[in-house]
Amino acid sequence: VTAATRSETRGPLSRYRILDMTSLRGAIGPQMLAQYGADVIHVEPPTGDPMRHEPPFAGDVADPERSLLFLWRNLGKRGVTIDLGNPEGKRLFERLILSADVLYESFDPGMLASLGLGWSRLHEINPRLVHVSITEYGEDGPYAHWKGSTLTAFAMSGAMQVSGTADHPPCNAPHPIAYDAAAVYANAAVMMALWARHSTGEGQHIEISAQEAAIGGLHPWAVPIYSFGNGGKAATALNRRGGISATIYECRDGWVRVPIIGDRFWPIVRKILGEPEALMASEWEGQAFRTANEDLLHTLITEQTMKWATEALVAAAKSSGLPIAAVRPPSGFMKDPNTLARGFWREVEHPVAGRAVYPSTPVRMSASRLEFGRPAPRLGEHNDEVFSGIGLSREEILQLRAVGAI
Amino acid sequence: VAAVLDGLRVLSLCTGAVMPELTRLLAEFGADVIKIESASMPDFMRRVTPNYERSPGWSDANRNKRSFAVDLRSEEGRQIVRRLAAKVDVMGENFRGDVVDAWGLGYARIREVNPRIVYISSQGFGRGGPDEHNPTFGPNLVASFGLQSLWSHPSERIGIGATINHPDHLAGKVGLVAVMAALEQRRLTGEGQLIDLSQAETGAVLMGEAYLEWSYNGRERRPLGNRSLSAAPQGAYPCAGEDRWCVLTIETDEEWRRLAGVIGRPDAGADSRLTTLAGRIEHHDEIDRMIAAWTRSRTPSDAAQTLQRAGIAAGWVQTAKDHLEDPHLAARQSYVQIEHPVSGSQSYLTNQVARLSATPVLPARHAPLLGEHTDEICRDVLGMDAATIASLRERKIVGF
């Protein structure tokens, strides 16, 4: 049975409205919930989400509607503008909160409270509201008010220590991976709070520390391994090798990655490489010996893989049941037959940026409709429809615009 | 207050990280999670240490579950698992594409005995394509979807990535959301369904803008290492000690002036070549040398704390040892010790990240010993009498 999407009329989360006030720290979270049909409304200040100014841009034209980061991370959301610092803007926000199931935000700790919109006030306005806050370090503890960035969040997670190679400084990840971990945990927590609400009738506050989420979502076993004895050794530069047991090997025209984890794959590796003398010693059959001598093993294996063209080696290894992949650029995945067969890539038409192929969702569901295709909102695009939807008259909306509240 | 998932029962037929961590979260939020395994076919994470019960990764990923030892190589054992599947709300598996079907434990078969079941299946590349039966691990997935090619300093020959098992530790949580969405739908329709989760596509979704660069602009993204297109300087700087590094990010011109003051270079703060982002990006190497001259004599935490006092985003490349000694993580109890019947309480495991004010997770309970709960599950869930259990044990169908 394959989980091909059946045509339900609405997604499984279509009864929920999520107000999204995230920055890069969390924006992918509500985007992923929108795929299940949730009505996600991205609330920006009238000056626009700063992410709109992040390069690079579609067509290399610097324009707030063309930031690739913004276009991807706000896909599927509607967009409104509200100035929370304006008294009428704040009143409007409180009305919008009444209509919402979830407030999903990543302000620094205390920011909403300083506007008189802290959790206790929000709970008073709408007792059913689920409020999730993603902060750098959580809302308490000595670093609660420290400033952060995608780099500092990755470094403080423990994952950067083993990122890159020993002869270079530790290397940052190429996307905001610590913040993405926070969004992924926040989504799981939101689902739990909505489920709890079925029986309690009440919303609650959820606190997510990006540092803790990055520990749990990227490198959770470093401390367990260190503290379980393990000779009491902390990771050093020598552990920064890019792959478990140096599993990246060069071929004639590229590179492959072959994680040889456990003992069952070793005989297959040897066989594919033509059972060369140097790899036939029985000592190599044990994971512990391979790990202890991984530099030598890497050299010996590379001597063999250099005789291969990358795609030929990948094909041979795949048909023998070995975990393998060519090291490909992003466009390689866009041409990957497996993702094409699964329908992972979709065309999206954006009124300013134009039409382009986007990734979609990693999930297929046999009995749920997943929604995909609404482009990222233009600044204030849905002000009229969202605000009239909560009962504002045309005159009221014009008035809010006149005073700069929206 | 009852736990969020009180009354929900889950069958976890899984190994490694992705699905065990998905079912760990369900267990922490109160579901009764039954882990299926056996001595002949243990979760491979148990085997990474000489003692089955002392594997750190296993212990972290499987807490709060019950273990049911049953021999999946025997039809009688598989029949017992089908009987269990008839009594659960959620079932998860992450074997290669054809394995559970061969056991008669795939969705098509289970649905016949339990149409309400939410069944999640997760493979590296997902179902329905030519790679569905391939074995995978995180490291070959990050190579395949393009992340590794971007993960290096610009001077390096090849993207090298990290010694972490990405996207494994995030895929389970992404799958959890799909499970909860399916349960939401089941409240309305009464019907379960199959969820198919691709771990590679999970990693791809988190870097979607890299594909947009190809589809909008027709070019590949280039590795930036520790640098940024919208902040400078940004980098990792050597500190006192072996392989110790402080990191910082300067987003505004004002932050740059403050940084220049902190590192004793107010002259650089006033240097007109460096007062704009574009100028600092152009002269980044020169700025890096100034910062390193200041960090080199300081410990990474001293450097970061001094910078934070000046309102600069800074931190350091923390190690496992740093985490256990860190006052912030200690104050927040980000790691917990769990009493364990074999390994004691010497180990630290990750605490739950999601902190819910009204319905927090259950207290952490040790990951089960192999088969620890076999008898009680036979008795209480399957309704077997003592003689039946004894017979199954004697024939090594359960308990081994």
Structural account:
The complex is a heterodimer of chains A (406) and B (400). Chain A is α/β, with parallel strands linked by helices and 406 residues long. Helices cover 35% and strands 14% of the residues of chain A. Chain A has 17 helices and 12 strands. In chain A, the strands form 3 sheets. Chain A has a 6-stranded parallel sheet with strand order 3-2-1-4-5-6. A 3-stranded antiparallel sheet of chain A has the order 7-8-9. In chain A, strands 10-11 form a two-stranded antiparallel sheet. In chain A, helix 1 (28-34) packs across helix 7 and helix 7 crosses helix 8 (210-218). The longest helix of chain A is centred in the middle third of the chain and has 24 residues, at 177-200. Chain A starts with 16 loop residues before the first strand and ends with a helix. With 400 residues, chain B is an alpha/beta fold. The longest helix of chain B is centred in the middle third of the chain and has 22 residues, at 168-189. The mean pLDDT of chain B is 95. Chain B is built from 19 helices and 12 strands. A 6-stranded parallel sheet of chain B has the order 3-2-1-4-5-6, sandwiched between helices. Chain B has a 3-stranded antiparallel sheet with strand order 7-8-9, with helices on one face. In chain B, helix 1 crosses helix 8 (168-189). Chain B is elongated, with a radius of gyration of 26 Å. Chains A and B meet through helix 1, helix 2, helix 6, helix 7 and strand 6 of A and helix 2, helix 5, helix 6, helix 7 and helix 8 of B.
